[in-house]
Design goal:
Blueprint lengths: L8 H10 L5 H18 L9 H14 L2 H20 L28 H10 L5 H13 L3 H4 L7 E3 L5 E5 L6 E4 L2 H13 L24 H14 L7 H14 L4 H8 L22 H5 L10
Antiparallel strand pairs: 1-2, 2-3
Helix pairs in contact: 2-4, 6-8, 6-10
Length: 302
């Protein structure tokens, strides 16, 4: 791991010892949060951070990031400062005076789009490129995770004898095959046309979603696309993860079985569905087959 210029030699050495037992990916994740904190506060040394500076930083990230991310950032920094206190680099852990961001596992209205808002989003997608429009419809109609979407390859698309289309998502225990909405497959064909690809889809190890400079797209690229789409639809209060929550909540309201949703979304336990009990009374009343029969979903008329 390369040393970042905004850490002093002493800070970097302390972090190296603190993170010695971490995996490379965890170590990188921790370091990014430490760097974010120092960059925001502009303090000369991490050892001199005050509770006021820590509180201002947590207030800042609560405005910029999802609650689950805020909770993780707080936990990382609290842990790092607790280590420095334990090793007597500092006398007090300033994060003990800051309220921890709490994430509720139950989903509320602010986490889920209604069918009317889904329609509002679909109406706005015509302003996007063929690739970005496909990405949005793919997320809306599969409920997949961003890190699953970016890894989908052409060989993961499947068609059966009845011309129903499917896609293979996830890896390992979470690998699953889910049905694609017809409009989603229609957009795949359109995307291939505008990308200069042949009409016939040949199974290959090439990623479906790419950039002009790369053979694959990143989670960050997708978040930017989702943010742009939400802004155009005047639904800026939502984020990418809310599309997955919306898929789960609306499918459950329309009558999908918890076990079917578990398989569709790759949940480890069907009882994850209980997180949506507080939103089921506001969304209009398999997953995708339940949505396909809904006349008031505009995507079914595309």
């Amino acid at each position: 791991m390369e040393k970042n210029y905004i850490l002093t030699n002493e800070e970097y050495e302390i972090f190296q010892i603190f993170s010695i037992k971490m995996t490379p990916s965890t170590k990188k994740d921790y370091l990014s949060k430490v760097l974010l904190f120092k960059d925001f506060t502009k303090i000369e040394s991490l050892l001199d951070a005050t509770k006021e500076e820590c509180r201002e930083f947590i207030n800042y990230i609560e405005e910029e990031f999802a609650k689950s991310t805020c909770e993780k950032i707080f936990s990382y920094l609290h842990s790092f400062y607790a280590y420095m206190k334990r090793e007597k680099y500092i006398e007090i852990n300033p994060f003990t005076f800051v309220k921890k961001p709490i994430v509720t596992r139950e989903k509320g209205k602010r986490d889920v789009l209604s069918i009317q808002e889904i329609n509002q989003l679909i109406d706005a997608l015509d302003q996007l490129s063929a690739r970005d429009r496909l990405i949005m419809v793919f997320l809306v109609t599969t409920g997949c995770l961003l890190n699953e979407l970016v890894k989908v390859k052409w060989k993961d698309l499947i068609v059966d004898e009845e011309n129903s289309f499917y896609v293979r998502l996830g890896q390992g225990k979470k690998e699953r095959v889910v049905k694609l909405h017809p409009y989603c497959f229609k957009l795949i064909e359109s995307y291939r046309y505008f990308s200069g690809l042949s009409e016939m889809i040949i199974p290959s190890d090439e990623y479906i979603f790419t950039t002009q400079k790369s053979q694959s797209i990143t989670d960050r690229n997708v978040r930017i696309i989702v943010r742009k789409a939400f802004d155009m639809a005047k639904l800026s209060q939502y984020s990418a993860k809310d599309l997955r929550h919306s898929y789960a909540a609306i499918s459950l309201m329309l009558g999908a079985d918890k076990e079917d949703i578990k398989k569709q979304l790759g949940w480890s336990d069907k009882y994850y569905a209980i997180r949506y009990k507080h939103v089921l009374n506001f969304v209009d009343s398999e997953s995708i087959d339940f949505m396909l029969g809904k006349d008031n979903l505009k995507i079914n008329k595309k």
